[in-house]
Amino acid sequence: MGGSGLWQISEGWFLESMNKTKEESEKLHKQLLEKEIDITNFSQKHKKLRVDYHLTHLAASTSFSS
């Protein structure tokens, strides 16, 4: 079916995007622990990453629900 190929591409994109955001969050945590970034900047950047992650997850969940 033609639609299933599009579904796989889209699902892969969502998973890749979520994994990238998770990796960026881990790097940010490392920067905080190593005192390369202050708590104010960490908080702002971390909040943005978490919002991006959850919005992507929500979009994937609603796009691929049965």
TrEMBL record:
Gene Ontology BP, a term: protein transport
Residue span, VPS37 C-terminal domain: 16-57
UniProt keyword terms in alphabetical order: Endosome, Protein transport, Transport
Cellular location(s): Endosome
SUPFAM superfamilies: Endosomal sorting complex assembly domain (SSF140111)
Pfam family, one: Mod_r
Name of the protein in its database record: Modifier of rudimentary (Mod(R)) protein
Gene3D superfamilies membership: Helix hairpin bin (1.10.287.660)
Family: Belongs to the VPS37 family.
One of the record's GO cellular component terms: ESCRT I complex
Principal location: other
Organism: Artemisia annua
